[in-house]
């Protein structure tokens, strides 16, 4: 549109940009503080640390057993991604392709775990898992994490599957593909981009999922984010820089996967998933 | 009828340009439109016709040139300050407002007193035959009805200019014909100056007083429907107006308004539309309905028949010349594929161009 | 049944298939059973458990909750954090989303904003502990500019939790608002402009009414998230006092007192308060236009 050049409009725009700039500045400041501190020899009462060092990383690695924590984290994340794909994709396919009585109810069933915050359903869920002697172990953590990720995969995949023309499947059948061949040669290649995007988002969400893991993990099944929480919670026991080094390790692990995921999805999709 | 067109003499586009980065969507287009005219901007997609309309409406800022309404320069004005009416391609009806509120929106924005606004909305609804539908939401209306609301909403504010952006492109064939007649009827009733964008030459020919043919951001020809139909100025305009057979040859003689062109072994005579000189290469353009098989023994364009199609009254033949040029023509009987045909046309129906499909 | 009928009868399998129930539909079962077993069942189990307290009658947990200000006070404490944060982020998000939607290269901004959401509340809490501290860059900058003379206390009180909720909540609200806003057909605004509506009138009459149903959903999702605040309330707030939010009460009952029955009761109450606000907002939304935000025919 022909631009509005009135002063009031320009001032209003400037105010908006100022706000967003202020927000981003603080966000980056917060992240930069953590990174700076993790490389600081001593940082008290000055703008910048007295000197620079990388020794906090080796300190954190040893103190917090980061090697073990990372290995546990990735085992849990891998299992969650695998099972959410195995359970979620077929269900999404059925929901995208069939109309059946009670479908609305099933959709609601899958929507609820995404709408109810984890801490709310996490406490009764942890209670059940403790009764079943599943909590405190890796399997309990994986099960708890699957509760929101399976519905997440389903809700991300349904629109993706719906936009694939059913005639393509019909054509494959006409040309003689049986169900298995149809799946391998036609469906899987078509669905792959969607599955990849959904699972990458699951991966990022699971690395960052604090509440469910926190409520169900035992000492040997802590993921990085839970270990970070305990470290911050018990601050004073360890050097601040050591905790910051751990936080940087956590940020790097999360952000690497976020960057990979963003190659396949739009940032707004990460939050807009739950809208109906 | 109290809805009438606002008063002005003419709208002038003066070397109007629009660039999108390095792409020139519109290149110095100049055009004068006088009050009461129905102008169609016609051209294939990407020719700049919609860009022109958006520039006039103020939905896009121009990157060069100006727009004048009589003595007032309006291209710097924001769309809401121009006071034109516009019918959008997908109607752009406000989905949360009733038909009445949609039609009355422009009046409300202009601060027209409620009583008068209500009266004018009712009148506009009646004009587009929407009585009894006015409390519905747009989503409850059929495509044709939505179209009527969009037209009523644009004309109720009595704009000096009504802009229409391919308003019929979303309707099915039958409804399209019906709404075409409606648009013409409403134009005749109100006399509102209208600029109508379309890529359908039939629509332009049947609706417009004058047609502006555009291509790649420039105006190729402006004329009445009759002008464009029988006297296109350029080869590309001719092609767009239905001269589907275009064949290249060499000029062998020029005689006043006619010229002879040698094509293969034959000579074709036609009316000169772009001046040509003997020895130059040139193009002839012929409508399929003007091209017929010649009587045996007569010379003409020699081609090999590919297929014929039955068209109810006659057959349409498709043939290929030796150099690969495709020809389509009318035949009275079904012909055998593979047969050699000799085709000719009345010299008055053959147009000669210098070529250069701009 | 006569044999003729048996021949003519459509087989059960085919009748079910006609209603959409065939082998393919069954693919939904594993996921559905999983969610029933690990979401619905625990919820019902928790509900049941909350009525079987360690001592007293069936309602003992609830009676105790609502008679102990240390417990029922958490509702007000949490609301006092969640509602202002939700409203503030929404009020900020709407004008900024209107500005950003006109941007050609939104991607950099949206990517930056997705970072705090992805990093999560624990890391934001850890970062703010440094950043907002008395020696942190935030206070330091304010003192250098001369806005304050002594560091303001932003940690281990209401403001620390509030600010951490804004850092994770604003991007969430903003991105959701932006996605609703970009779902509105731009031709509607153009139509408004050609009909004489200026920027404010276009916002008031066209865009805002069309955005409002989406804003209601955004409000609900943002509120529910803020209401379930946990790690930042512990790490940045004063978990024993001003920021003792309801999730802390539930956590303490479960993992410090090992009273799962009481913990379930608190979780149920937490769920109910969230539900009450959501129902309230959605009921108000029911009065709005909710069709497609496009100008075309469907």
Sum up the structure in keywords.
heterotrimer; A: 276 residues; mainly alpha; MetI-like fold; 76% helix; C: 298 residues; 2 domains; 13 helices; 71% helix; flat; cell inner membrane (chain A)
Q: Can you tell me about this structure?
A:
Chain C: Residues 75-281 form the ABC transmembrane type-1 domain. Chain C: This is Sugar ABC transporter permease. Chain C: It is found in: Cell membrane. Chain C: Belongs to the binding-protein-dependent transport system permease family. CysTW subfamily. The complex is a heterotrimer of chains A (276), B (358) and C (298). With 276 residues, chain A is an all-alpha fold. Chain A has helices spanning 7-38, 55-63, 66-97, 103-115, 118-131, 138-162, 166-174, 179-208, 211-216, 224-233, 240-262, 267-272. Chain A folds into two domains: 1-38; 55-272, MetI-like fold. In chain A, 76% of the residues lie in helices and 0% in strands. In chain A, helix 10 packs antiparallel against helix 11 (240-262). Chain B folds into two domains: 10-235, 3-Layer(aba) Sandwich (Rossmann fold); 236-353, OB fold (Dihydrolipoamide Acetyltransferase, E2P). Chain B has nine helices and 20 strands. Chain B has helices at residues 49-57, 79-82, 99-109, 114-127, 143-155, 173-190, 201-207, 225-230, 235-240, and strands at 10-20, 23-34, 38-42, 64-69, 72-73, 85-87, 161-165, 193-198, 210-215, 218-223, 245-255, 258-263, 266-272, 281-286, 292-293, 301-310, 315-321, 326-331, 340-344, 351-353. The radius of gyration of chain B is 24 Å and the shape is elongated. Chain C is an all-alpha fold and 298 residues long. Chain C folds into two domains: 14-47, no CATH class; 71-285, MetI-like fold. At the B-C interface, helix 2, helix 3 and helix 5 of B face helix 9 and helix 10 of C.
